[in-house]
Amino acid sequence: MWVYLNDHFVPEEEAKISIFDHGFLYGDGLFETVRAYSGRIFALPEHMDRLSRSADRLEIPLPPPASLETLLYETLRRNHLKNAVLRLTITRGEARGGLVPDSDPKTRTTMVITPRLFDGHPADYYENGVTASIVSVRRNAPDALDPALKSLSFLNNVMAKMEAKKRGAFEGIFLSLEGCLSEGTTSNLFWVRDGVIKTPSVKSSILEGITRGVVIGLAKGMGISLKEGNYPPEDLLDAEEAFLTNTGLELMPLTGVNGKKIGTGLPGGMTIKLHQAFKALVATGDGGKFLVKTWGTPSP
Ligand code: PLP
Predict the structure, then answer these.
(1) Two domains, one topology: 2-117 and 123-284
(2) 155 CA distance to ligand 1 middle (Å)
(3) Quick one: average pLDDT of 43-61?
(4) Topology at the third CATH level for domain 2-117
(5) Which residues partner with 196 through β-bridges?
(6) Does 30 contact ligand 1 (Cβ within 6 A)?
(7) What is the pLDDT of residues 80-94, one digit of tens each?
(8) Nearest residue by C-alpha to atom 9 in ligand 1
């Protein structure tokens, strides 16, 4: 595969970064994961928007979104990929002299784009659903390391995923420091109770997933009632159905949690209906059309 590294496309075996890179030393950087369907990247402006807001907060200089978009498409073209996942990684770059080195004109952002062929998860995952485990590791608090930043500091997520894996679960579900349902290690969480879809609000220590925003927009457009809030774990344990969302999963039915069935233990009707609507939206290529932008305006 050809990868992009600081102004050049190089074969992946030749891509090297400095041992003094702040991303390597301190997890000082950001990333985005986007998905291409038939050569078209889904909700690309929304991904770029999230990245540039995070880069602003961390004071990491970012090339204009339009040039990033061009590079992502060029990565697809060079690798003859139509259905793929692309990861864009940006770090503060190579710098010596501590956590916040004096500004040096030679220091520049490290930027990497790595592609991989991706045709979706196996069909039986969607037919049977996957399982999750509520892990003991709590989600980072927003006023410590804000989960709204898609930061390279991913140790919180890695530890939670290790715990879930040891318990034989597909995904680990975080609780916030306050003990409310938060999100998966790499996914957002939705469930249904009494016909109402529920999802943790932006005040529950989550990354505002792009897929989450699209799903909320779709549900509203379809007249399905959906509530965002701070919910205790029992809400999920007693749910009628549940699903996880992210760029790669789309909507993945969640049919078991903590070794117990959710609802009948099969994918629920609401999940199936919304996933069909999501796939129809992908087919139109109009990813951001239904995106509910809540960034910076926490819902109650
Ligand atoms: N939450 C976390 C912690 C994630 O890492 C991700 C994606 O990797 C998501 C949620 C879902 O985000 P998106 O729908 O933008 O892929």
Answers:
(1) no
(2) 15
(3) 95
(4) D-amino Acid Aminotransferase; Chain A, domain 1 (3.30.470)
(5) 193
(6) no
(7) 999 999 999 999 999
(8) 187
For ligand 1, atom 6, which residue shows the shortest CA distance? 186
Any bridge partners for residue 192, and if so which?
197, 241
Separation of 33 CA from ligand 1 center, angstroms?
Answer: 8
The preferred substitution site among 182, 190, 207, 214 for testing ligand 1, maximizing ligand atoms within 8 Å of CB, is 207
DSSP-assigned letters across all residues of 29-66: EEEEEEEEETTEETTHHHHHHHHHHHHHHHT-----HH
* pLDDT tens by residue, 241-252: 999 999 999 999
* Residue 216 and residue 157 in contact, taking contact as beta carbons nearer than 8 Å: no
| Mean pLDDT of all residues belonging to the chain | 94
The dihedral over CA atoms of 144, 147, 148, 150, expressed in degrees to the nearest 10, equals: 120
**CATH hierarchy code of domain 123-284:** 3.20.10.10
Q: Which atom of ligand 1 is nearest to the CA of 188?
A: 10
CB 86 within 8 A of CB 72: yes
The pLDDT tens digits for 164-220 are: 999 999 999 999 999 999 999 999 999 999 999 999 999 999 999 999 999 999 999
C-beta of 187 in contact with ligand 1 (< 6 A)? yes
Q: What is the mean pLDDT of residues 133-142?
A: 98
